[in-house]
Amino acid sequence: MRTTIIRRAHFNAAHRVYRKDWSDEKNREVFGPCSNPRYHGHNYSLEVQVTGLVDPTTGYVMDLRDLKQIIEEQVIRPFDHRNLNLDTEEFRDLNPTAENIARVIYEKIRKVLPHHLDLRIRLMETENNLVEYPA
Ligand code: NI
């Protein structure tokens, strides 16, 4: 009985979406206001979806308290109220688009999630823009 459980979380972070090897004008042309050199913030909404078999002993796919703890340690603590470009190792040389943020979050959680469980990340950068990884 494969089942998906979902834990939601939120974090606020600043970023600038740009390429270091392009001029401000070229970055604005390609990335729009998200490339504003003085940065800007988003209220990110995150859904962490974990899929696996329901353990007949507990009735759980995984204890949601453990998932909450993993999200707290891997995502909220390092990213909440940070400037992703300046304050995090992950985005020092990686453009912090929603696509890249979702993949980084996936990789961080994947490392500590039990191997028998499948993982999918949904990251909402705005009310209307969201990214899923893996596709
Ligand atoms: Ni942005």
Strand and helix map with partners:
Blueprint: E1 2-15, H1 24-31, E2 40-53, H2 64-79, E3 82-83, H3 84-87, H4 98-112, E4 118-124, E5 130-133
Parallel strand pairs: 1-3
Antiparallel strand pairs: 1-2, 2-4, 4-5
How would you describe the overall organization of this protein?
It is a single chain. The chain has helices spanning 24-31, 64-79, 84-87, 98-112; strands at residues 2-15, 40-53, 82-83, 118-124, 130-133. The chain is α+β, with helices and mostly antiparallel strands and 135 residues long. It has one domain (2-133): 6-pyruvoyl tetrahydropterin synthase/QueD (Tetrahydropterin Synthase, Chain A, 2-Layer Sandwich), CATH 3.30.479. The protein has a five-stranded mixed beta sheet with strand order 3-1-2-4-5. α2 (64-79) packs across α4 (98-112). The mean pLDDT is 97.
The mean pLDDT is 97
Main β sheet profile: 5 strands, mixed
In this entry the ligands are: nickel (II) ion
Low-confidence stretches: none
The separation of the N and C termini measures 23 Å
Q: Assign the CATH class.
A: Alpha Beta
Number of strands: 5
* CATH topology grouping: Tetrahydropterin Synthase, Chain A
Series of secondary-structure elements, N-terminal to C-terminal: EHEHEHHEE
Radius of gyration: 17 Å
- The number of helices is 4
The domain tally reads 1
Q: State the strand order across the main sheet.
A: 3-1-2-4-5
CATH superfamily membership, which one?
6-pyruvoyl tetrahydropterin synthase/QueD
User: Which structural category do the helix and sheet elements fall into?
Assistant: alpha+beta
Spatial shape: elongated
The name of the CATH architecture is 2-Layer Sandwich
Bin the helical content.
Answer: 25-40%
Percent range for β-strand residues: 25-35%
